[in-house]
Amino acid sequence: MFQQLKNHGRKLALIFVLLNVQILSTLALGDSKSWQEIDWLDIAGEGGAVWLCLVWLIVLLATRPDGPVTRLLFWGFACFLIASGQDLLDEVVRLPEATVWNHAVESIPMPIGMLLMSIGLLYWYHEQQALNEQLRKRERRLRDHRRLDKVTGLADAQYLSQQLETELTVARAEGLPTSVLMLDIDKFREINRNLGMGEGDRLLRELTELLLLNIRRRDLLCRYAGDRFAIVLPATCQTMAELMARQLEDVCRHFAFRARNSDLAQFHTVSTGVATDGLDVQLDEKDPVEQLLSRANYRLAKAKEARVLKVA
Ligand SMILES: Nc1nc2c(ncn2[C@@H]2O[C@H](COP(=O)(O)OP(=O)(O)OP(=O)(O)O)[C@@H](O)[C@H]2O)c(=O)[nH]1
């Protein structure tokens, strides 16, 4: 979590300097109050506010990358921190009667902070909408971070089965077909061997992005196993699913993968297999999810065999 803080070194340094200037100038210009003059209840309340602002600020920087939302929220919290910090300092330091700047520091940053936070939250809402749009093809109806694969960020086979079960129930009730498309990288073992596992991982990640770009909004992409992806195609008949499979094969075949240790791009092929549950192809009631997946895997295995025979 704290790795992210490294990207915000300048902001952290700036807030550190600002707080120090504030503390040192207040101490230099005023006298400390005696114990009897200090209202400990105010100290607890205002100190708590300062402490919370500081914690929020650190959590914000530790959990978010840089960008407009982070900057607006950061400056919003920073304004709160400066204003409540001055409030706290005034509890322990007595400034000369004529001093006015401390009142300005207590009151002016607060509304500015509120305004910045409000704009930041609005931007955050728009940002979240854009992220949801991207996530839709990865998660469809259910979000479960425990089922996410570390390499590609896609959901795993168990999640796929859960989603497929829901999809089949809804689609059958509406009389719509559902297809599953399995896609497997050819000779991935060789890619790993020639380029190394790290580059193999990178190819998996880049193919994930490519597939996400080339499926429809309503489809769901999961990592089924190793170098195998599964795509749930709601409201899609067998013929359409097969056409989509051909298109995805073409897209992958033309994708230029640039391995780190090579100047030239490499091109890799994939094989696919589809299976459909629909009016013309009904699966048995007993475990339709398992049947659909094993049919798609079977067709994929056949496609692999045909490819090997063609090369030979
Ligand atoms: N880099 C990387 N490799 C993986 C990962 N998961 C599985 N693999 C490797 O992927 C390979 C998959 O093996 P296969 O599908 O049998 O081999 P293949 O060479 O693609 O064979 P065909 O599918 O028949 O063309 C294995 O060598 C696994 O070690 C991963 O997360 N990252």
From TrEMBL:
Name of this chain's protein: diguanylate cyclase
Enzyme class label: transferase
Transmembrane stretches, start-end: 12-31, 43-62, 69-88, 108-126
Pfam families reported in the protein's UniProt record: GGDEF (PF00990)
GO cellular component annotations of the record: plasma membrane
Catalytic activity: 2 GTP = 3',3'-c-di-GMP + 2 diphosphate
Enzyme nomenclature, EC number: 2.7.7.65
GO biological process: cell adhesion involved in single-species biofilm formation; negative regulation of bacterial-type flagellum-dependent cell motility
Keywords: Membrane, Transmembrane, Transmembrane helix
Record CDD domains: GGDEF (cd01949)
